[in-house]
Write a structure and sequence with these properties.
alpha+beta, Immunoglobulin-like, six-stranded mixed beta sheet, three-stranded antiparallel beta sheet
């Protein structure tokens, strides 16, 4: 009777040993977590209790720093359009837009700047007329997660050369 009692636990131990051996060779992650102690100094990221990555949704800040509202420019000259933009994730690009007055002339234009300082030297050739033609300008900043924010429209006037 005593031999049978000893044989059953030995058989169970042997079976458990074989299971661990086979599972280790097949790469069983559940077994790895049970048989290998965790190392807090390991460079291998842990898969336990890892929160899902959250998408960053904060929009960047942007200001159109020039030109100022209501400025007058002659036709066939450069207008320096500049903006300042900031976001914690970084700014991917700033897109400048210029929209003409469809009643006087119809010309839309845009420029994308990927580096600071964010500046567009917009040439007014072909814009403007008599009387002064309004033009609307704005800038849109895009952060590294694709979030964006636009400035309000700034209206300037393009007139004939004086």
């Amino acid at each position: 009777m005593q031999n049978k009692i000893i044989k059953i636990p030995l058989i169970l131990v042997a079976a458990l040993f074989l299971y661990i051996l086979i599972a280790n060779q097949s790469g069983c992650p559940e077994l790895d977590q049970l048989t290998q102690p965790s190392n807090p100094y390991s460079s291998t990221p842990s898969t336990q209790n890892t929160p899902t990555e959250q998408m960053e949704t904060t929009r960047p800040t942007i200001n159109l720093t020039s030109p100022s509202q209501g400025s007058f420019y002659n036709a066939k000259t450069y207008v320096t359009v500049s903006a300042s933009a900031w976001d914690a994730s970084g700014i991917q690009k700033v897109v400048f837009e210029a929209n003409g007055n469809p009643g006087v002339w119809s010309n839309s234009d845009s420029y994308t700047d990927y580096n600071e300082p964010y500046v567009w030297n917009f040439y007014t050739d072909g814009h403007g007329g008599s009387p002064q033609a309004p033009m609307s300008l704005r800038a849109t900043a895009y952060d590294n997660y694709g979030n964006s924010r636009s400035t309000g429209w700034v209206y300037i006037y393009i007139g004939p050369n004086r």
